[in-house]
Design goal:
With 243 residues, the chain is an alpha/beta fold. The protein has a single domain (6-237), classed as 3-Layer(aba) Sandwich (Rossmann fold). It is built from 8 helices and 7 strands. It has helices spanning 15-26, 39-51, 66-80, 103-131, 143-146, 152-172, 197-205, 215-227, and strands at 6-10, 30-35, 56-60, 85-88, 134-139, 177-183, 234-237. A 7-stranded parallel beta sheet has the order 3-2-1-4-5-6-7, with helices on both faces. β2 (30-35), α2 (39-51) and β3 (56-60) form a beta-alpha-beta unit. The protein is globular.
Amino acid sequence: MQDPRVIIITGATGGLGQAMARRFGQAGCRIVIQYHQNKEAATNLAAGLERLDAEAILFQADVRSLSDMQSMARAALNRWNRVDVLIASAAVQRDGLLLRTTEKAWDEAIETNLTGAWNSLKAIGEPFIRQREGRVIVIGSVAGHHGRAGQSNYAASKAGLIGLVRSVAMEWAPHQIQLNLVLPGLQATGMTAGLSPQQRQALEREMLLGHSPPITDVAEFVYVLSKMTGVSGQIFNLDSRII
């Protein structure tokens, strides 16, 4: 049976964003592909979803702008009259030791990773409350729990997502809206392309099993979580690091 739900994915052109879009597309979902600058990747993703007989629309927006996120929500509602799931996946890394981190690098990480998620929630909150249902899945990072040298801005932004998700989960629970945070582990995406072999090995040594799940497994988990009932305010770590 086809899954007709409407899914908004921010950061959909990233490696994980694309994997999630394909998984929802395989199920027949209708997908809003949010992208900021990489129109080519967004167009190619939409074409791939069309080959799966999944409807998709592209929406160019900056998650740092509340008005952009509100316009995106309106576009989805105008097209399909509802939104069922928001996946907040947009993120950037601007790594550097604290004393070498510029104000610009700090602001870009916080505004994209944390404020971007906040803007996305603000934009979708009223439609979800009117529907008296909705699912939000935010993509976080173990760095938000443990911290990481050279990533004070990134870790701070991801730590903020914990408080954001848990607080809004409490606020929206009376409306049957579920919010959860997923930590996808170390994936071979653009976010980790800058890691040296030594850095990658050090991160893998933190894992009990020495590796993260395949990105397709992460996408599958997100899909299954998006259909579950009675689960909210939780943090799901998908590798073998103990948090």
